[in-house]
Write a structure and sequence with these properties.
1 helix; 17% helix; binds zinc ion
Length: 54
């Protein structure tokens, strides 16, 4: 399980690559790492991927 531990220590946002604090679909007991996002891109926000550009 060292791969999961390493992943949790280095998880980043799938959208912008910043450190991620919000995980979705995570089932470590099943080996599922899920999808991770920072506060700006977590999935429970409205779909605003296009507006993420600066
Ligand atoms: Zn992000």
């Amino acid at each position: 399980m060292s791969e999961i531990r390493q992943f949790l220590a280095t998880k980043i946002c799938l959208v912008c690559g910043k450190p991620a604090s919000f995980g979705f679909g995570v089932r470590l007991t099943e080996g599922k790492l899920g999808r991770w996002y920072c506060a700006d891109h977590r999935e429970d926000q409205p779909k605003t991927r296009e507006s993420a550009k600066k």
